């Protein structure tokens, strides 16, 4: 359950960290949002607010859908872990991991993170650890439920 909670928290922690303040300050002033340590949710909100202006509308919606998938799968992993349903928790944990990898690939391919302006933030590293912890917890719960008859 701890891993699933950390996955959910990762959506709101810094996904990227600014390397140097000058370029990021200009962007922050232009869009009216502090972009020195943006989270996945902040990136999504900024993309949606500026769709068609600074960001292609299609890219804004792709980022919205992928981020929503990460959060939804993390919530479902947490729910099924709390309900002691290890197989469902494993499935949604893996889906959250795949959605997170898709987002990382997208941001890397477009040169958003890592880039000259940004390096990966704590959320990037915490999410990988949380996925592994949630998966190990689900496997442990699965084994424990098989050993003790209900």
UniProtKB/TrEMBL annotation:
Highest taxon of source: Bacteria
Transmembrane portions of the chain: 60-80, 87-105, 125-144
Leader peptide range in chain numbering: 1-18
Keyword Transmembrane part of the UniProt annotation: yes
Keyword Membrane: yes
UniProt keywords, alphabetically: Membrane, Signal, Transmembrane, Transmembrane helix
Protein name: Uncharacterized protein
Organism: Bifidobacterium oedipodis
